[in-house]
Specification:
five-stranded antiparallel β-sheet, about 575 residues, about 45% helix, globular, alpha+beta, 19 helices
Amino acid sequence: MKTRKSKPVFITREYPLIFIYLSAISLSLMYVLSRSSIVVCTAAMTVLSAGVFMLFYALRRHKGFAALAAMALGFVCMTLLHMGQSNRGGNNIMDYIFTASSFFDPFFAGASIVIFSVIVGFACCYFSVYSPRPCFLMLPSFIPLILSARTAGGIPEGMLIFMLAGFAASAAAMAHPEFPADNIYINDKRSVRERIIAVLAAGAVLAGLLAVLPRSDKTPQGDYLDNVFSETGGYYAASERLTNFLMSSSVNTGANSPQGNLLFVAKSQSPMMVVRWAFDEYYGSGGWRTTREFDTGYADWQTTGARRSAAELVYRLKNASEAGKLKEYSALLKDVPYSVSSIDGHSVTGGEDALSAEVGIAIRDGSQTSVIIHPNQTFRLKVEEYSGRSFRTMRDEIFTESNLQNNAVYTMDYFADLPNEEFIRAMEKTDFGRLITDAAEENVITNSTANAFLDEMEFARRYREVTYGKGMTKSIEELAEAITADLDSDYDKALAIERWFGESGFIYNMDFVPAVVDAEYFLFDSKTGICSDFATAATLIARAAGLTARYTEGFNLSEKVLGEDGLFYVTDSQAHAVTSIYMD
């Protein structure tokens, strides 16, 4: 008698769980690849991967057609992968996949969604229908969890709960197909139950560990991928996972007498402010704290930073306009001077020799640190001793992969030019992003240069979205409205806020002990404090006025600490907090 082959039979109540499972995987992948458009991209991948799942489920009894479908989808994926290898603005699809949402590109996003949807949809269907081995059902979820943990420094709690719940419930359902009763072994309820429990326990433990353990770039997988895709600059690194970074700012509690201990020696062409770290959200007496989304740093920052010279941009736009290009903007650019004001008060003409300068730092307090003290617009770091790769965060912190040696010495190149006021005001009358895009299309600037400016614009917009409203009060919002009333220009708003502090009777006093450690107390009661009070208040007012602003701590290299040998001898007395405001 011929024996009938047993096949699994799935019922419709499992479809919702399948969608949850696929959406959980899609969410974790898009958190890594397309964080700035995560909702749309997650929805697209969920629908597409579910479609692939249902396609192969419908073809489960027609293995020949299923094989043809697999080959056709494989060809589509290989074609998209090949198309993505060509540079788009200096990047390719491997940059997009392995640099953790450092930029967004619609084509790369679409290609990635198609490729991963095919892989995930087919894998889920194969291991739940064609070959129901429950231990393999967790494999598709491990990949995005590993990427999320390694590239983002952890997963937000709500997202983690959704992913774990989706993985657990869906894996349990898909691992329990119904077989005909004549197959005694497979229909053994106890063995099925034991397998499900083992799979869920192992998956939950591994997923949880991947989400909370400190990410290390020294794992074999990381080293392998970084070697294979070395041109991408490797993975992101999380500053919060490294030593010497603070998660909260200093606060003014009074008695601020500095000790006068020498921290580092700096060699620079002129006085300046150098940055140590920045913070995102204000918590009153708790000071400022970081937001996890901005704690990661991009390894390829030196390449993109070198393309963001304000002086050269002005020079190229002016030349192009006078040569008959960028006709739409010619009237706007006509009155913009070539000269660009530099930070030391001199004037420089842009072009190929746009003003850049070098600053050197020699640590003198014996510390081993990964934090790089640097000026704004730093685009190159040179460390004498090997410390691994260096990274830059979206809030302009720079740090190295490993701690530097004791009393390390390093130098940096930075653009010492700032856009002149006429250029800033001209840009406020147009869409700066569109101007940059048009300039690239007319070959006035390279696509790489355009992308460098556009990426910084996108970072700033995202930063404003996340930080707006954090720490603000109605009183501060009303104050911001009063200070910036009838002003449409961001530049004018920033100047008005700066001017208001100088005209409103505020006093800088290192010895003052505040009765309340709070921005409102400083603004409306004492009007007396130190740099952290002024910077906190100015940052909150600027944000309430709609500006992209961040609270930054560093050191003020003033002429007071300039020695006869031309070096700046920096102690804790020069520790300083400022407000940094971004404008397109």
